[in-house]
Amino acid sequence: MTPRRDPEEALGNVELHAWAAERGTVYQSAGNMVVVQGGVHEYYYPGGEESVRTLSPSTGEECPYPGLRAFGRNEADWFFGREALVHQVLERLEPCLADHSPLTVVAPSGTGKSSLLQAGVLPALAAGRLPGSRHWPQLLLTPTADPLAALASGLGALTGADEALVTEAVQSSPGSLGTLVREHLRLPAQGRAVLVVDQLEELFTLCRDEPARHRFVDALDGLACGRDPAVLAVYGLRADFYGSCAEFPHLRDALVDHQVIVGPMTDDEVRSAVERPALRSGLSVGRELVGTVVRDLRGSARQEEGGYEAGRLPLLAHALRATWLERRGDALTIDSYRDTGGIDGAVAATAENEFGKLSPSERQTARLLFLGLVRIGENGEVTRRRRTRADLLLAAADPQAVPAVTERFTRARLLTQGAERENGAVTVEVTHEALLWAWPRLRQDWIGAGKSGIAIRQELEEAALGWERGGRKDTSALYRGTKLELARAWEAGASPEDLTPLVTAFLAASHRHRRRGRRIRSGAVASVTALALLASVLAVFAFEQSRNALVQRNNAIFDRVTAEADRQRPTNGTLAAQLDLVAYRMRPTPALRTQLMTEAGAVLPTALPGFPGTVYSVAFGPAGQLATGTGKSQIWDTSDPARPVPLVSALSDGNVLAQSVAYSSQGALLARGGADGSLRIFDVSDAGHPVALSDSVQTSKGAVTSLKFSPDSRTLAFSAFTDTTGDQTGSVQLWSVADPRHPSLLGTVPSVRGQALMAVAFSPDGAVLAVSGSTATGSSRRTGLLQLWDVSDPARPTAFGGPLTGHTDSVNQVAFSPDKRVMASAGSDSRVLVWDVSDPRQPKVGSTLSLGAGADSVAFSPDAGLLATADQSGNVSLWNVGSPSQTRAIGPPLRGHTSMVGALAFDPTGRTLASGGGDGRVLLWRLPPTLAVAGGGQSVNAVAVTGDGRLLAVASGTRVTLWDVSDPTRVTPLGALPPFDVTVNAVAFRPGSSGTTVLATGGGSMPSGGDNGAVRLWDVSAPARPVAVGPALPGELQPVFALAFDADGRTLAASSMFSQGAYSGGLHAWDVSDPGRPAALGGELDDRRMPIRGLAAAPGGGYLFAANVFGRLQVWRTGSKAVPAPVSGLNTGQPVWSMGVSPDARLVATGGTDSKVRLWDVSKPQAPTVLGEPLSAGGIVTSVGFTPDGALLASGDALGQIRLWDLADPARATPYGLPLTGHNGTVWTLWFSSQGEMITGGDDGTVRLWQTDPSRVHGILCASTRTAMTPSLWKEYVSPDLSYDPPCGG
């Protein structure tokens, strides 16, 4: 809003124009203008372009925010912030009227597309914003699994025509459909009906009938196009299905000619969406709340970009609804917002809160319910799924519990219940797909923990439901053959909860039917073969008896070992890896080879010998020794994490129960805090012979729960906690240990009765002390306590303001990162908050991490790049915290503990993490040397390797780092290019042996418009000191997404893509034969200016291959200083997102948003041809690559999986082994080095080296797991009949 001018201020020449229709009125006063029309007030102020719309106040207690669901057509009065976008859509609709064309609104999931259409565009048309639109009938529909029925039903209801007549026209005569609609609605000559097809992507996700898809699109074409169209059509499409429309001319033309891209809201629009619904409800909104919401929504996006990550709007709406539910009187406050979890945690907090209210049996019902409401596609992609309540009841283990559980989550707006048009059956679905990734329990514990099993169970359940609906009489519905074998394997490892009565009955019936068939077949042939068989058996009996027994024994052992490995994998990955090595030695199958590849890149634990009771604390000294507080204090040598050795069995400390331990920064001192409140200092400069320096000093009546040395080792801070008959109290004391033989009290952090102070942490400079715990609220409930204190004078601690808000339950632990900018706090509210404490007077929450249970512990790695968290379920998680405002999980939770984990610590190298839990176990988690975290904490967008396989370039956010990969078993950092002002999306090394190593980089766009899509060259011959080779290459480019040098390194090509307002892009090339004097080779090479992501160069022969997102593949010929010339082109039939060329330049692989990989024979570049059928990959295929020998193809996807394909016969490529897992999120880039290692980078900000050589895999796994296979475990899990022969030696 433009500020009002003072009446005395000279207004100058200001013209104000306004108009009001019907009974509207225009008022003007002192240069301001007000238009009143139908309860809507528009205010115009001179000096600015914006107007402000207000509405009549609401009455009642209606929540002004929709939560996860979209705004409906009847909620336009609450829909704010998208006025400019609604206007843009209406502007684009006018030429659509003239052109007889539909308009497509394209948006990523979670950007408010449905709300825009339902509460913005349709009400605007109904209000007459286009000429005549006030009188146009409106129809809103989604395709569903049966798009033809949905369209026929909707048109029948709209027109009043007989539904059978409409169905006939939809099915067989789409050309006459427009006439039918026009006649029944009696539309005037220029009149139209409005047809909005929202969630058009359902045509591809739910509808499995390809002919039905085409008939549906033909029907839309008949309605919206032609000489006399009956409807003005608007389609809402999720952006990741943009390319799926390529094979439908009607949809392709709509996307090319008439589209609106839904981008992020500006900060002002977000403020409007937050404030104005509340004001209409008579609520006040605190300014601090609005500012915090805007910052939280933006997350890691820079302020000047004014944007935020796609998908966050539903989280905002849910957070606002949760805040409204916790409002204080008539005010929405920052405290209510933080108490409910904010944008990042509100959905998870709501889901966990509802889940926590369920009984144990209801929790199992909820798990099966939500798993039944997601669809795991054939390629592993996860989408929501609409089910009828009748089917859910039939498939449930406890049908009586389903209604109550469904109602609970429906009231929380996490599920939505509706009714089918055709028969009125009640349906249930997840309200928004944001829940699928915002609720960790659903994403990680339920879906992620067994994705392949869920897909099998899902198909099995659907078959069982069909069998049930047929009265259990249709034997053709039963499983047989491979399907039955797969189901039997799943059944053997399934949990009892998954084996519901219906599934169990279906499988039992399938088994009976198979046995009956076998008996019939065997009886028919028995009499014919009996004599011949008997003679044969007698002839060879003696020889076969011995051989068969050995084969059967080995088969049984192999089956047992692989089954035990699968059983151990979720909780004991180290033993599972050893069992897999045993099985691979027995039978080296592709499945085991790929399983071992995954395990070689996993974070696996080594257990220290067990301790009785709880492990309260773990601490590493600067020399790498590990101290444990487990009732007795012990010290361990962990220099080899696979073989930890006790240096001291227990410190000589009387009968004191050691609860907390801490090393001084120099490592010479070890402090021990006792359960009796005592403190003692030890000299551990000789770790094998510790010496007590001080007596045991009594400091409090309660246990010392947390103990930390200041960075200069002169001050010791600790918290002491007492719980007497429910009266919890605590204190924090600071002691001088300048003379460790005589520790003395310096000061005490002020506390009040009812405060339970649990943990302390010093900032790296020693000036700030963080104190955490809980405070009594006057009832049985306690709330979190977290406060920062100035301890620059330890004798006089001074608070930096009041307690920090954010946690809603006890704050169990707190830690500072070594760079002192970041702090993490772990709360019993199942959240870890990541704080920006660069100014300790004004801490700000940067990220909220939602865990599956109460968070008990946090620890930072020495380089500040990793954060470890642990919770009460026993899970340990690793997070990339290089960008604190966008903290990313690295892989799935680490499972090894069976109860709460209250102690975490990194060793000085940052490669080993120690965890201690209530199960009495201390685990050492070793990060494999093949795993590296890219600097800056951003997604890894691209990697490239030099031809000799020794130097790796990694593009992550605005940074490009250089790594030594000459040793294929580890990644070693070497240097970095200067930071960029743009996101770097592409890197490529120039081939050849000129003596200079040249790296090309290509980036995205800057908000200011500078260096938009700039391509630059760098001399990285000395990786520690890279040097720019001249300025950016000439030419105006859109943001660059791929780079490729031709085979001789003389031509460099760059592909670009831009998606603001509409998709555009292109292809450019330069002569770089002299990198210091690059020259543009023509301008835009592709006149279509289509967005291009797929780009690759043939290793020999001078050819480039490029494919745009609409599926057009083109071959270009390059030559010395010559403009690349087009050679051939074809339509791939898929939206291409990635591309690779085989080493012999005979094959091209394309990966697309259709979750398919296609192979092309380009041995004749003038006439490329398709090879075989498309290969089903795991989700959107974001990266592809060939092994150096061309024997295997690899594809990376948006689900974090990497699949391998056997190319022995490229026309009949087959899956090779199991998908490789490890990345958390999209695998954006994939590259094979000349030595054969596969290098990948992903959305989790990590780079990983995957070993394709089984001997190297064996060496890596033996280095970390060799002690796991003991003689007793060999007998238990392998065989007591085989001599002890562990795979890594004795």
TrEMBL record:
Cross-referenced Gene3D superfamilies: YVTN repeat-like/Quinoprotein amine dehydrogenase
WD repeat residue intervals: 804-845, 857-889, 894-927, 1136-1170, 1181-1207, 1220-1251
Record PROSITE patterns: WD_REPEATS_1, WD_REPEATS_2, WD_REPEATS_REGION
Keyword check for Repeat: yes
Keywords (A to Z) from UniProt: Repeat, WD repeat
Pfam families: nSTAND1 (PF20703), WD40 (PF00400)
Domain Novel STAND NTPase: 64-474
SUPFAM superfamilies: P-loop containing nucleoside triphosphate hydrolases, WD40 repeat-like
Domain of life the protein comes from: Bacteria
SMART domains noted in UniProt: WD40
Protein name according to UniProt: WD40 repeat protein
Organism of origin: Kitasatospora cineracea
